[in-house]
Design brief:
heterodimer; A: 157 residues; alpha+beta; Glutaredoxin; 2 domains; five-stranded mixed sheet; 7 helices; B: 554 residues; alpha/beta; Rossmann fold; Ubiquitin-like (UB roll); 4 domains; 44% helix; globular
């Protein structure tokens, strides 16, 4: 139960500090990629916060995930600059190539597709981010190559 | 005696002097833009390559390589600026590894000894510093961004950093600081435009029983805007210094930064800057040997636009859902943990140290009668030179879009400019000579907002654009109050119906009525302003709506 102990450690680190629940949740998600039921229970016990409070916070904020996303998380920017420059077509291409919708993961657990509100690279619009790597000046034609690049990355590991 | 040593070690004048002497030794400075935009186009690798080339040629003593914050012209990134003694400064655009190698071998290294011209191979990468994009700007807040290493506190001090704090702490009373800011006419840069000096005055009046807070709002959620991110990435110490001066002015005991989790680089640089301040005894007890004690901590957002609203932001720091509450009581009376709190935007705080150093009159010399100083805009959308700009208040839209921005790309015509993001409205091309300031923008149904300026060309459909913004606010509505939660959905359903060609004339009337109810009855700014993009496009482009109606075509 390596994950579980992580949640306890995080709880111990933050329990005495003020305004720390969201920071603690960030730390758990940074390591694990999401925050699941057992993390929430441990955090509740460790920090002395009710489970209901943790659940309402987890579900309120878009940033937190309750289920494991795919290995490669594809974030398509839907900020205004990207919208004007046609990122909706890029999103459609990702959907059709992967056969999944927004907020879904592929059956093999490889890709997760999500939309994000402005990554702040508007000068490079339209923009997509995969696991922290940014792809600027996107066109639908770039999509297959990006997917192949990440399939290759995870094959090596 | 130990005390004297300590004071000397952390004397900001001494640190600044030593840093300046160190910089002076170099023949050449290479500034490599290292902000989110340029980093995503590979500036990390470029930086490594340049470092390697310098090492290979054993030029470490001649060439200084600086990873900087945003240089502004993001669309042409990655950018590199080369300053060599005796040569004119050069700016290079769209650099890749090959280009970087070429620049080093064909320009930088030969130019260290003699004057050299730009060779033909390098011409495509040269970006003229005489472009109106650079010439027409007035940099106050962005003065340091792109000119120094944001992660080096001594470089900030070498550029006059923390002198304003020293001036405030050692020569001014808190009331004098408040007065100076009030006289400068600085208004909140987050969008509201409330007088910063007045806010500080209100906060200062509330007695500090045990604790009082200053909070920096870095929850820049407007899609298509990245001013605050660039300021935090390019010059984090300026914001910290502004916060410390604010804390002194209002009697705050602790400071909180609330920054979007989507901005990891800004958070990292802020963390490093706070750490450097602590190391240099600029945070902690008895700062600069005075009675002023202060500490700063960071809290992250988690992807909720509504947390830009101050009461929602406070709830979020407290570890709860980011829902707003009715005001009054205002945070200046009852804020974080029910303690008096003053919430200021990133750009607002970044202005503070400059005002104290150069004076309220200097600051008030920029801008219009009621909007003083400069404003940073993220100029994006269908415009040639998309990027981060700073202009005096009162600059016309035409100057911003057509001169600084270089106009819309060839073949298309300017249709409108959108400001204020999902809370703002469109400004049609016929108003291009309008000066950009709080009042004028309001007159045409838009707002200043935080500084997103999106250029729209004639290929864009305004009904879809309005729907795009409303989609956003409906998604981001926290759901607490009915006008916003239900009104937004109903308006979206009507827009969808119109877009599908099923709308009728009476639907436009219904749109207006729901919008009115939302504006009047919503709890916070999100709901009150959510109808703006629809109302403003309806006002100026009603025919685009009626053309889609079943019974509207003439």
């Amino acid at each position: 139960m390596a994950d579980a102990s992580n949640a306890s450690q995080v709880a111990a680190k933050w329990r005495k500090k003020r305004g720390s629940l969201i920071m603690a949740l960030h730390e758990i998600q940074d390591v694990k990629g999401y925050v699941d039921w057992s993390d929430a229970v441990e955090l509740a016990q460790g920090m002395g916060v009710s489970l209901a409070r943790i659940y309402e916070v987890l579900t309120f904020y878009n940033f937190f995930k309750l289920k494991a996303p795919g290995k490669a998380v594809i974030s398509v920017c839907t900020g205004t600059a990207c919208y004007l420059k046609g990122n909706d077509k890029v999103l459609e291409k990702f959907k059709s190539e992967l056969g999944i919708g927004e907020g879904e993961s592929t059956a093999d657990g490889m890709f997760h597709l999500q939309c994000v509100r402005c990554v702040g690279c508007c000068g490079l619009a339209p923009v997509c981010v995969v696991n922290g790597k940014t792809y600027g000046r996107m066109t639908p034609d770039n999509v297959p190559a990006i997917l192949d690049e990440w399939r290759e990355t995870f094959k090596e590991n | 005696m130990a005390d004297i040593d300590l004071e000397k070690r952390f004397d900001i004048h001494e640190i600044a002097k030593n840093k300046l002497a160190e910089i002076e030794k170099f023949v050449c400075n290479i500034y490599c833009c290292h902000s989110t935009g340029c980093k995503s186009s590979g500036s990390d690798d470029i930086l490594d390559l340049i470092k390697n080339i310098v090492a290979e040629h054993k030029l470490e003593e001649k060439i200084r390589i600086v990873a900087t914050g945003c240089m502004g012209l993001c669309a042409q990134g990655p950018l590199i600026r080369v300053e060599i003694k005796g040569q004119q400064d050069r700016l290079f655009k769209r650099i890749d590894l090959n280009a970087a190698k070429l620049i080093m071998e064909k320009y930088v290294i030969p130019a260290l000894d003699k004057k050299v011209a730009i060779v033909k191979e390098l011409e495509p990468f040269v970006l003229s510093l005489d472009l109106p994009f650079f010439k027409k700007q007035e940099k106050v807040v962005l003065k340091n961004a792109g000119h120094m290493d944001p992660e080096d506190i001594s470089e900030y001090m070498a550029r006059g950093g923390y002198l304003a704090l020293e001036k405030a702490l050692k020569t001014m009373t808190p009331a004098q600081v408040v007065d100076e800011i009030k006289r400068s006419g600085l208004r909140g840069r987050g969008g509201g435009g409330f007088s910063t000096g007045m806010k500080w005055e209100l906060a200062a009046k509330v007695p500090t029983v045990d604790e009082k807070f200053i909070i920096c709002n870095g929850d820049e959620g407007d899609p298509g805007a990245y001013m605050d991110r660039s300021i935090l990435e390019g010059d984090p110490h300026a914001v910290i210094e502004g916060m410390m001066i604010a804390a002194y002015a209002i009697g705050a005991t602790e400071g909180w930064f609330y920054v979007r989790a989507e901005y990891p680089l800004a958070v990292e640089r802020l963390q490093k800057a706070i750490k450097a301040c602590k190391k240099n005894l600029l945070l902690g007890n008895n700062i600069m040997g005075t009675n002023f004690s202060f500490n700063i901590d960071i809290r992250l957002g988690a992807g909720a636009f509504v947390c830009g609203e101050e009461t929602a932001l406070i709830h979020s720091i407290e570890g709860a859902r980011g829902t707003p509450r009715p005001r009054p009581p205002y945070p200046t009376n009852k804020g974080l943990w029910e303690k008096p709190s003053c919430v200021n935007n990133v750009e607002t705080l970044a202005n503070v140290s400059k005002i104290l150093l150069k004076g309220a009159d200097w600051f008030a010399s920029f801008g219009t009668e009621t909007s003083k100083g400069t404003k940073v805009f993220a100029l994006t959308g269908q415009v040639e030179h998309s990027g981060l700009i700073e202009v005096p208040m009162g600059t016309t839209i035409n100057e911003i879009v057509n001169e600084i921005g270089g106009g819309v790309p060839a073949g298309k015509k300017l249709k409108a400019v959108q400001t204020g993001g999902p809370s703002g409205g469109v400004i049609p091309a016929k108003y291009m000579d309008m000066p950009v300031c709080y009042e004028e923008l309001k007159k045409v149904g838009s707002i200043m907002g935080s500084g997103g300026m999106i250029v729209i060309d004639d290929s864009s459909d305004m009904v879809s654009l309005a729907k795009f913004y409303l989609d956003f606010t409906v998604d981001e509505s926290c759901g607490k109050c009915a006008p916003c939660r239900i009104g937004g959905r109903q308006m979206l359903a009507l827009l969808d119906k119109i877009n599908r060609g099923k709308g009728k004339k009476k639907d436009l009337e219904l749109l207006r009525r729901i919008a009115f109810a939302m504006q009047k009855a919503s709890l916070c700014g999100l709901g009150q302003t959510a109808p703006n993009p629809v109302l403003s496009t309806l006002k100026f482009y009603e025919s685009e709506y009626t053309n889609k109606l079943v019974d509207g075509k003439e």
